[in-house]
Amino acid sequence: MEEKKHDIIIIGTGLGGLICGNILSREGHSVLVLEKNAQIGGTLQCFKRDGCLFDTGMHYIGSMDEGQILHRFFRYFGLLDKIKIKKMDADAFDVFNINGKEYKYAMGYENFTRTLIEYFPDEEQAIHSYVAKIREVADSLDLYNLRESDPNDLLNVDYVKVNAWEFIKSLTTNTELQNVLAGLNSLYAGTPANTPIYVHALINNYYIESAYRLVDGSGQIADLLAEGIISQGGSVLKRKEVEKFIFEENNLVAVETSKGEVFYADNFISNIHPSITLDMIEAGKIRKAYRNRINGLKNTISTFGLYITLKEDSFPYLNYNYHFYDSDNVWGVDYYSNDNWPQGYMMFTPASSKTETYADCISVITYMDYEEVRKWENTTIEKRGDDYLKMKEEKAKRLLDLMEKKFPDIRSHIKSYYTSTPLTYRDYIGTKEGSMYGIVRDCNNPMQSYIFPRTKIPNLFFTGQNINLHGMLGVAIGAVLTCGELIGLNKLIKKINNA
Ligand SMILES: Cc1cc2nc3c(=O)[nH]c(=O)nc-3n(C[C@H](O)[C@H](O)[C@H](O)COP(=O)(O)OP(=O)(O)OC[C@H]3O[C@@H](n4cnc5c(N)ncnc54)[C@H](O)[C@@H]3O)c2cc1C
């Protein structure tokens, strides 16, 4: 029996795929979302160990106070009264330990500015200039403010070419302040030579406006978005790994899964990495130059994760993220080396409805280069061999040693721990080489490193963190761009604002 033809097939249930599915089914289109895994959500998915719930890649969200940008999105999706969130510490939502000294980022611009001036009383002017500039950059991008936008003129040319680190260094010669201002760069795997100011400004602005944790994990967002798709008449099917795009003459008509099932549609949206998507298209159906450009783009570094379950009532719940830098260099990617690994980490105690005062678990993440696991790249989950397990154990030990510098008795609180490597992310989520945030945005080559949702195949579109920007907000904005191709960008923006 031939499958029913859908208006739109979406490949992947990551945040971008689910948002597109939710928007398009809301608009009356028949939508089918196909997911390769048994669990939906991609990097939104959570996993349980010893009764503790760990996020894989959505530890906190920003701009969720009433009227702020993410709040407006969640209102449109009808999530506001369903989602469980917890506001982080207003005076310290992110805490940095840089070479032994601690600094706090406070929420709200006034509070943020005042706190920094307390640390650096002689740098008042530089701090005010910094704040004014990142607000100006964040405000200048119409789409990020859900204002009417021209899809062909999305990035203000000046800001995509300005280097974030050069801008910070132009404000002050005080290296301590420079490092504090760049302290959140692990949220975008920044590099001093490449990160554009718009990436830095959008992400810092997003969290300074307000920062929240997702109580009992980020999987709730995936579940709620999928429930919305289904209640609007769409379908979300798990264990459907798309392997191939099927063409009739030169028209894309269907996708085929690893089990040989074929699904037909008028339009297709890929939520998976663009170069992996293009690998599923036979030669001759897409121009070589386009394929080469996409395949040649550099991806952000991957990560090593340490997931610790804690003895009961032994370690406090921290209502902030803790960023530890073992030197006065906060730009970890450029200085990555296996010899002095790890040079820093980011640590979170997830918010749980079971406990408020104490944490039941800790997630710790630090960079890890794919090259370190390349020799196991042809292995599969749980069958990678003893030498792989030994490598993971050695990494966990080194990371715990570093944690002891700040938390000397950390080992005594541990009940059990688990680890992930770039191969875990590659195999569970399908990101290229386990890349954390997808394609690198480069201020030296801005347009080359920017991927548009439209592809060279008229009815195939991209969505997800590789187009536009990563993270909750970046992917939501990207999904608006993708859906805008099908239903009109400014019409959609209006609907989100009027929800
Ligand atoms: C360690 C880490 C921490 C992070 N922390 C935060 C944070 O605190 N806040 C924040 O805002 N952002 C954070 N991010 C970024 C954020 O999680 C991602 O940018 C975002 O979730 C990516 O969404 P996506 O739409 O690109 O889909 P992805 O998450 O990449 O999902 C893609 C989906 O496609 C599926 N798929 C792949 N191949 C196929 C196929 N062939 N057939 C069918 N399905 C397929 C996958 O299984 C997956 O479900 C973090 C990321 C990482 C890695």
Report the end-to-end length measured between terminal Cα atoms.
40 Å
CATH topology of the largest domain: FAD/NAD(P)-binding domain
The CATH homologous superfamily of the largest domain: FAD/NAD(P)-binding domain
Would you identify the CATH architecture of the largest domain?
A: 3-Layer(bba) Sandwich
Count of DSSP H/I helices: 16
CATH class of the largest domain: Alpha Beta
What does this protein structure show overall?
The chain has 499 residues and is an alpha/beta fold. The protein folds into three domains: 6-45 and 57-84 and 217-296 and 441-498, FAD/NAD(P)-binding domain, CATH 3.50.50.60; 111-208, no CATH class; 301-436, no CATH class. Helices cover 34% and strands 20% of the residues. It contains 16 helices and 19 strands. It has helices at 15-26, 69-76, 109-119, 124-140, 157-161, 164-171, 175-181, 197-209, 219-231, 274-279, 288-295, 386-406, 410-413, 422-429, 471-487, 489-498; strands spanning 6-11, 31-34, 46-49, 52-55, 61-62, 85-87, 94-98, 101-105, 211-214, 235-237, 242-248, 251-257, 262-270, 302-310, 321-325, 344-348, 361-368, 414-420, 460-462. The strands form four sheets. Strands 1, 2, 10, 11, 12, 13 and 19 form a seven-stranded mixed sheet that branches. A seven-stranded mixed sheet has the order 8-7-15-16-17-14-18. Strand 7 and strand 8 (101-105) form a beta hairpin. Helix 1 packs parallel to helix 9 (219-231) and helix 4 (124-140) packs across helix 8 (197-209). The protein is globular, with a radius of gyration of 22 Å. The structure holds flavin-adenine dinucleotide.
